[in-house]
Amino acid sequence: MAKFENVQFEALGEFIQRMIKDPAAIETFKTGSQDEIKNLLRGFMSPRGKTWDEITIVPHFDEENVVNISFPFTGDVEETVREIAPEVGEGVDYPFPDHYKFDPNTGATPEEKKANRLRGYRSRIGDYVMSRCK
Q: Could you name the domain of life of the organism this protein comes from (predicted)?
């Protein structure tokens, strides 16, 4: 199963916010070649342990009354559990992304609060998209 690293959550969220309003961009994701789709995503993340040529992107667009449930790849779940909580030893850290470590409702001025809220929301959009990639 392909996973990503070095994900730029806020930038990805901002891209998604713009992209879902652009019929041409949506069409690229729905009918474009793998190269076209990967080129749109390349600046926001890197495949972990694989190259872009080794992975396939399968886009899904949520609909108002449709629930898409993505179940994780069993091997990925077991690998992560072994890494973070092995039967023997301490395991590796399981850190939260930086955007979970700030309060998006802070700011000295209304404009700073708006900017922080947008940062938080765009990061959340990035999380939403990436949570379906695992």
A: Bacteria
